Amino acid sequence: MSTPRHGRYGYSALPDRPVYDWPGGKRLAVYLGLNLETFDFGSGRGAQLAPGGGDPDVLNYAWRDWGNRVGAWRLLETLDALCLPTSVIANSRVFTDCPGLVEAFLARGDELVGHGRTNAERQADLTEDDERALIAEVTAELTARAGHPPAGWLGPWISQSDVTPDLLAEAGYSYLLDWSHDDQPTWFATRGGGRVLSVPYPQELNDIPAVVARQVSGPEFADMVVATFDEMLEQSRSAPLVMGIALHPYVVGQPHRLRPLRAALQHVAAHRDDVWLTTAGAIARHAASPDPGT
Length: 294
Hints:
Layout: E1 28-36, H1 58-82, E2 87-90, H2 94-97, H3 101-106, E3 111-114, H4 128-146, E4 152-153, H5 164-170, E5 175-176, E6 186-190, E7 194-198, H6 207-213, H7 218-235, E8 241-247, H8 249-252, H9 255-269, E9 276-278, H10 280-288
Parallel strand pairs: 1-2, 1-8, 1-9, 2-3, 4-5, 5-7
Antiparallel strand pairs: 6-7
């Protein structure tokens, strides 16, 4: 009896795959995924600093709101100082809830990635028609704001329905970020004989599961970034790899976490001649090219 499977991709052992380079002959591609999110007041989902006391959960709502009002701007200063690009993974309603915030990152030339309307809802809770409408609404908003449609998508709460990859491919998306099953981009099969690329998105180097769920300290999270980078740089000698770092301003924007994170990012930036510092979208484009080694 076989194990139930999703049917999106088959098993592939890393040592058996073709070896290619990222641009410039690099073997390690590094990107930052900065999540800019908004939440419903008095209802819906949201990360918690501490157990809330019922709705309206002022404690946790205000903690998250601080990220858009203060933390994101501190992170912007850090990225500017280190000349680091980022993939801005944004809820579409951040544009109206926090005017000028996403625009400040787009002005740097950063990539805009679709991330639902708000982080108070999950795609897995929607019907197929409602999910299709959600994707269309978000795509239209982000296209109007950025001047071109987004190429990538990360579901709020990394939530997918059984048909999410199909709907994204049908809506024109070329890659998704929800899966952390590999260190290289992976093709997902979609209905009708189509396909969409999965770019690795981190769950270990992600401040929500690390700091909020596992109670990792700021210095410990920074140490994780440095150790992962150093190890993957060595591993990439034999195969091209992707290292993502997922950040949320209300978590790592806090001063006691930002200081060690900045030091970790300085370590990464100091190796810019050895690695490809890029965006998730650029990784997807290169991986999808006929010959990724060119």
